[in-house]
Amino acid sequence: MEFILAILIGIFYAAGLYMMLRRSLVKLIIGLILLGNGANLLIFLLGRITKGLPPIISGESPVFLGAYADPIPQALILTAIVISFGLQSFAIVLVKRAYTVVKTDDLDQMNSTDQFS
Amino acid sequence: MIQHLVLYPILIQVFLAVVLLFCWRRVHLQKVISVVGSFLSLGIAIWLFINTWNQGTLTIQAGNWEAPFGISFVSDTFAATLVLLTAISGLAVSVFSVGTILPARLKFGYLPIFHFLLLGLNGAFLTGDIFNLYVWFEVIIISSFVLITLGGEKAQLEGALKYFTLNIFASMIFLTAVAVLYGLTGSLNMADLSIKVAAIENRGLVEVTAILFLIGFGIKSALFPLYFWLPASYHTPPPAVSAIFGGLLTKVGVYALIRVFTLIFVGDVFLENVILTIAGLTLISGAIGALVQNNIVKIFSYLIICHIGYVILGLGLASELAIAGAIFYLIHDIIVKTNLFMISGLIYRIKGTFSIRDLGGLYAKYPLLSLLMVIPFFSLVGIPPLSGFWPKLALITESFKVDNYWLIAAVLFATFITFYLIAKIWSEVFWKEGKILPKLHNFRYFEKLKLEKKIQIVGPIVFLALVSLYIGFCAENIQQLALRVAKELLNNQHYIQAVLGNQL
């Protein structure tokens, strides 16, 4: 399971970076989304995957005995998903506006702010 | 009451932003609330600073969950100083925004978003939890995205796209780094991380994580190979927005770098060399970039990059005096950079252009205003006794001690180029005989503004110039502060003790 997830995360990062390096604005956003998902899965994987062991202390003992599923990574991922959802919706609107104003979705042609005046 | 003091700078900004949201479209009321609120938040920041100075590091555990399980908020001298500087710059920019931002932009929620940005900054400075830091960074960047795009001009949107992409990318790298760090240690509390990371045996993995943090924060603070988004975007929004971005946004990245590399990843020779190399190259490349520009805002944008190099240099040298120099420079830089961008706004109001080819004759027309603008210009170069001089002295002395001569060369080179640029701006904008520019339609020139507006534009510049003068002439106080911050940063037991209490 860990092995498959590790490879999947690698694919997410690689695909995200590749898409970000393309010239199209839409591909740029897809790249960002893929990178975000890769990062979320990475948190999930690095929080150690333990199956069927809920983080609940049984009545008899005051502390945890043995392994338990760590709930923190899931809380982190939830936060990160919500944040990236907001950012992605903003990104899509921004790209739409930029496309209507600049009239191109080619990043190579959006260089007027870098030129000398 | 008093133990919640650490949270007040954050709470006041939330409160202001929400109240401002309820006054949607009532622009005049918003202006009053924003300015009054900024004064209040300055008061709170001073209160927090005095308390931190007298009682040492203040901490609070959110929801009373004991560290390292809950989220800690920590106000050590470093954090309190930066909160104070944020409040000072925030007040100045708030008044300046009221004077210069067009009513159309104000109607679409400029001021609430501005206070959300300050909220994010205060949160980032005060938090003691690495994931919480990520969340505050997101609060900062999403507010800054709105501020940079508000108005929707072509240049703004183009600049915003680059700014947006690189900042989100930096956040992703930061998140990845947090994930790896959590996997290594199982903790997110920075004080706890400091202990646990020191105990990890596989130093290679720690170094890789540190480099991930360096890249993530490096993009945000515009370090050497990662800064290209900054000059492409900072000149596009209105000058008030550039002022808060230039003064504080890159500095929060620098704050995070200093915090992480003095608390969590300590004493790694390889990392220190990487940071020193980057610092030298940032100084040189930022200075060279600024040389060829003709737009004053672009010149200042490149100078931001260049001067980040001084702070990072101090961090890399990692001796007490060097870090004190870096902190001193940071304090000076936040005030002066905010002021420079506001000055560019004032020049634009007077002449209607940013291009130094077209500008000219300001000194003949406004001798007193020109004299005012000289103060931040000379402080920036560091002509003694103004504020930029003292930290450079410390940095050069410390570079001599480690026999790193090319760093001294980089520092002197950057200072010299800054000096040359200020001389160039001075002769082109102020002394050169002014061209007769075509009158812009629907443009409110400075001379035609009402007295109230003029005060709103010039007042903040005077205020920050006075703060700059204080930093320069009372350098002893600031140096004492910087030395205390450096002592606390280098002796991180102090921070750990304050957060984790007597569990050690």
Explain what you see.
The complex is a heterodimer of chains A (117) and B (504). With 117 residues, chain A is mostly helical. Chain A has a single domain (2-50, 69-107), classed as Helix Hairpins (Orthogonal Bundle), CATH 1.10.287.3510. Chain A is 62% helix and 0% strand. Chain A is built from 3 helices and no strands. In chain A, helix 1 (2-20) packs antiparallel against helix 2 (25-46) and helix 2 (25-46) packs antiparallel against helix 3. The longest helix of chain A has 31 residues, at 72-102. Chain A starts with a helix and ends in a 15-residue tail after the last helix. The model of chain A has no long low-confidence stretch (mean pLDDT 87). With 504 residues, chain B is mainly α. Chain B has one domain (2-503). Chain B has 21 helices and 2 strands. Chain B has a two-stranded antiparallel ribbon. The radius of gyration of chain B is 22 Å and the shape is globular. The interface between A and B is large, with 38 and 44 residues.
List the keywords:
A: 117 residues, mainly alpha, 62% helix, B: mainly alpha, two-stranded antiparallel sheet, 2 strands, 2% strand
Structure described in brief:
With 117 residues, chain A is an all-alpha fold.
Low-confidence stretches of chain A: none
Number of beta-strand segments of chain B: 2
Distance between the termini of chain B: 27 Å
Query: Largest beta sheet of chain B: what is the strand line-up?
Result: 1-2
If interface size is counted as residues with C-beta under 8 Å from the partner's C-beta, which chains form the largest one? Answer: A-B, 38 and 44 residues
Into how many domains do the coordinates of chain B divide? 1
Mean pLDDT of chain A: 87
Instruction: Label the CATH architecture of chain A.
Output: Orthogonal Bundle
Bulk shape of chain B: globular
Order of helices and strands of chain B: HHEEHHHHHHHHHHHHHHHHHHH
Question: What is the CATH fold-level name of chain A?
Answer: Helix Hairpins
Number of strands of chain A: 0
Classify the beta-strand content of chain B into a percent band. under 5%
Low-confidence stretches of chain B: none
* Anisotropy-based shape of chain A: elongated
The share of residues in helices of chain B is over 70%
Count of DSSP H/I helices of chain B: 21
In terms of quaternary structure, the protein is: heterodimer
Number of domains of chain A: 1
SS-based structural class of chain A?
mainly alpha
Sketch the major β-sheet of chain B. Answer: 2 strands, antiparallel
